[in-house]
Structure formats: C-alpha cells, structure tokens
Amino acid sequence: MIKFEEVSLFYKKKTILKDINLDIKSKERLVILGASGSGKTTLLHLIAGLIAPSKGTILIDNEIVSQNGQIITPPHKRDISMVFQDLALWNHMSVKGNIEFGLKIKGFSKKERAYRVKEILELVDMKGFENREIDQLSGGQRQRVALARALVLSPKILLMDEPLSSLDRELSLQLQDKILKLQKKLGFTLIYVTHSQEEAENISTLIIKMSTLFMV
Q1: Are 31 and 207 in contact (CB under 8 A)?
Q2: How far is CA 175 from the centre of its chain?
Q3: How far apart are CA 103 and CA 5, in angstroms?
Q4: Tens digits of per-residue pLDDT, 130-175?
Q5: Under a CB-based contact definition with an 8 Å cutoff, are residues 143 and 87 in contact?
Q6: How many degrees, rounded to 5, is the angle at CA 53 between CA 50 and CA 58?
Q7: Radius of gyration in angstroms for the set of CA atoms belonging to the chain, rounded to a whole number
C-alpha cells in the first residue's frame, strides 16, 4: 500500500532522512520507534503529503504521490487521516463540531453527517458527548474525540503521532486496546509513532527503529 524508494530529505544543508526504503502492506500496524530528532514525525508528514522528499519516490496503492521534491497527489486526495501529538482540537467547537468538520469540507449532507458522528462516537465510547465543549473533557476523552475525528471519514490510512504520550500508563493501555479494536473492525492501515518500546510492542504487527540520519 505505501512504498518508499530511496527517499531522502534535506533541510538547510542538513540531512533529515537518508535513502529510506520502506514497504508497508495494507492493514499493517506499523510502529515507528525512536528518540526525539530521529525523523519519526517527518516520515508521517511525507506519507501524508505535507512535505515532499528532496529525492526519491513515495507510492500509495502503486501510484506515485511524491517524487524528487514534488507533491504529485495533495494531502486531501490521499485518503489519509492523522492524529497529531497535540491533538489539534478546536476549543471553540463542540465535540460534534470537531468531528463533523471534515465531513462538511467534503460536502456530506446534514443527515449523513449526523449518522456518521453518532456511529463513530459509539465506536470510541463517547456516546452522548456530542454537545460537550472540548475544555469540559478529560485528557482521555480528548484523545477519543481526536481519534473519532480522524476515523469519521473512513480513511484507508491512519497516521498517529505519539497520541498517548501525555497520558498515564493505565489510561494509555486502555486507549491502545481501543485503537487495536477499531483497526480490526474498520480495517485501516495504521502508522503509529512512539518513543515507548512497550507501546510499540502492544500495538504493532511490524516495528521499525529510527536513529539520527538513518533507519536500522
């Protein structure tokens, strides 16, 4: 589903990633493990189409989406959703407003939006929270809203950038289990970034370890 061919990224004469070759199968749960500064988040941004590789080729479903400094397929056409480390929820919107935002952008009807929001809130165990404000939620509940917002569009690929790093271990384990159940039920390909070995082992079907400048 996702393939990197000799992908490198340079920024201001600094090598961020060098000669990455990667082949991720459909419905894989790939965890990218490594210390801060090793390029984990950069790899997600390349897959999402937020940045282009300085050289090399990225393919999704056997189609070239980025190559040699050019983004050929823009992010909104890649059927990808992302959960950012800081969650990036909008405090001025309700839970429902956050989740249905992407549906509005894509032109879903009011009836279809209502159905999808209701369905995804049930899946993440947040039924009845539609009208809550974001600042009224606990940390774990915010994580679930971010996950619901990402999954409501039924993406083929879900990218998660250290989404549980701010939670205590017990709550983190609960949400790891929820992510696994959702991935099994919905069948998306998961690319998950963490610095936690335990988290990586719990979630992954495949782990890659990154260090400064290269992958091992």
Answers
A1: yes
A2: 15
A3: 33
A4: 999 999 999 999 999 999 999 999 999 999 999 888 888 998 999 9
A5: yes
A6: 85
A7: 17
Beta strands at 206-211 and 189-194: parallel, antiparallel or unpaired: unpaired
Dihedral of the alpha carbons of 12, 60, 208, 68, in degrees to the nearest 10? -20
How many Cα atoms sit within 13 Å of 148 on the Cβ side? 29
Three-state SS annotation for the chain: CEEEEEEEEEECCEEEEEEEEEEECCCCEEEEEECCCCCHHHHHHHHHCCCCCCEEEEEECCEEEEECCEECCCHHHCCEEEECCCCCCCCCCEHHHHHHHHHHHCCCCHHHHHHHHHHHHHHCCCCCCCCCEHHHCCHHHHHHHHHHHHHCCCCCEEEEECCCCCCCHHHHHHHHHHHHHHHHHHCCEEEEEECCHHHHHHHCCEEEEEECCEEC
What six digits make up the tokens of 105?
Answer: 């952008």
| CA distances in angstroms from 196 to 2, 60, 89, 213, listed in the order given | 24, 27, 24, 20
Model confidence, pTM: 0.91
Tokens of 44: 């997600």
d(CA 129, CA 84): 21
Identify whether the C-beta of residue 88 lies closer than 8 Å to the C-beta of residue 161. Answer: no
If one counts every other C-beta atom within 10 angstroms of the C-beta of residue 149, the result is 27
